[in-house]
Amino acid sequence: MSRIIGIDLGTTNSCVAVLDEKGQPKTLVAADQERTTPSWVGWSPDGTVTVGTRARRQAVTNASATVFGAKRLIGRKVNADDVAWFAKLAPFRIVAAPNGDAWVRVQGQPVSPQEIAAHVLRRLRQVAEEALGEPVTRCVVTVPAYFDDAQRQATREAGQIAGVDVVRILNEPTAAALAYGAHRVTEGRRLIAVFDLGGGTFDISIMSVENGIFEVLATGGDSALGGEDWDRKILERIVDEVFDRYRVDLTGVPMALSRLRDAAENAKKALSAQAEAVIQLPFLANDQHGAPINYERAITRDEIEQLTQELLDRLEAPCVKALADAGLQASEVEEVLLVGGMTRWPAVQRIVERIFARKPSKGANPDEVVALGAAAYAGILSGDADDAALLDVTPHDLGIKVGDSGFSVIIPRNSMLPVRARKLFATTADDQKFVSIELYQGESAELRGNRKLGQVVLDHLPIGPAGTVRVELVITVDVESIMSVTARELRSGKEASVTIRPSGGLSQREIVEIINRRRQEDSILAKLPSEGGTVARVATREQPAAIPSDEEK
């Protein structure tokens, strides 16, 4: 069978790695020598799809058809707060799917985040096949530890569309710790924390490593906090300054927004290593009289830190909560590992040092370490590497709706995986034909503060007086934090039929339609002349039914 590759499917950049001949994980480099692939997908007017660097380059001239940050949308509802602000400043249109999921409208066609992510996965697969000289069909894909069930399922759907078998969904902090070699601790028990601040998500995991047994004690985070939020703060400041001076709203100028976003990110990167940077944007837009707006100004690290203080403040609470859930004091953590490009920011490192009272470790490239860990785990699964037992935990409380607005926890957060819980239900009316149960995930005591996963209907129940027919609901969460539900009626011992109506994600029919459409493309993985990214010629697509128009929304 083909080798299993490790993929870090990131918000800003993605990376692919594999075990080498010596059993060590290594990053696979594209033909253009790029070690990471920008998670950007662009559509040209003639139907060409580009991925990676080429897509990012076309954003300036074709901003409305160039999508980035799809990881922030995958498995998310269009009315979520973080999706709403993303939509406000994105140069492309974010629209509602029939089930309320956040999709993107490209050239008049709605496209799911899963399909966008699939383009990136296919590009990474191409990089791997070119580097290894053999077909690749299996992979381990990492996700933030704080991803919920819907986001994990959506990531699997992306792999299915891309035509790769996702053999395991692995939490990013766990992958990072594997890459650091934490599982090789052979003497005693070592407590470590993995602080993972990437482009779009923040995770903190507290782990115990002993004799090759890798146990996650607690995890926390914020799935709507990452480096792109720092970029957004800088972008918003420039937009406000231009409006105050010229009375021009740049949020309505996609090309200007695209240039601003690049300038904000480049300034942030420069300021992670130096105290001051200069933003120069000639001919950014036209003022009210048609004259060109030439924007230029110096920006300092201190200014950005003041501007983003609210973001920095959001990093502490998840760390404190994770430590409390693990039953540990910060002083008991022996090592803090930094993961994600945003951990290069000096203010972030100072916060980590203050919370854990020790300097964090910087022994690996934060942009590649997650993919390397995924490759290490892929080697364990395929038997090509030494074994390490990974014991992970559930990231959120899992429960059901009670009454009108209550939430009853069935599986508490930080339960060891895999985990199974049972709940008995009795009929409340004579000759009741079914029991309907709503499943939610989250940490709020109020139902509205949690995320609905779906509705489970147990039907075909035997007739009988109220309270005499009892149904056992069994909820299982596997090692990938993906949930399954079964049920049976106890009196007869027969299983009751279970229908789960998901509140989001793609149906199997939609996935098959997307796959069939992809098969009609010409040269879907055509090699590019050393410019980065991949290009494909896309066949004409029919618009899915029931997608509301912009006016209807």
Write the layout of secondary structure elements.
Blueprint: E1 4-8, E2 13-19, E3 25-27, E4 37-38, E5 41-43, E6 48-51, H1 53-58, E7 66-67, H2 81-89, E8 93-96, E9 102-106, E10 109-111, H3 113-132, E11 138-143, H4 149-162, E12 165-171, H5 172-180, E13 189-197, E14 202-210, E15 213-222, H6 227-246, H7 254-271, E16 276-286, E17 292-300, H8 301-307, H9 309-313, H10 316-326, E18 335-339, H11 346-356, H12 369-382, E19 389-391, E20 398-402, E21 406-411, E22 419-426, E23 435-441, E24 451-459, E25 470-477, E26 483-489, E27 497-502, H13 508-519, E28 522-526, E29 534-537
Parallel strand pairs: 1-11, 11-12, 13-18, 15-19
Antiparallel strand pairs: 1-2, 2-3, 2-4, 5-6, 5-7, 6-29, 8-9, 9-10, 13-14, 14-15, 16-17, 20-21, 20-23, 22-25, 23-24, 24-27, 25-26, 28-29
Helix pairs in contact: 3-4, 4-13, 5-12, 6-7
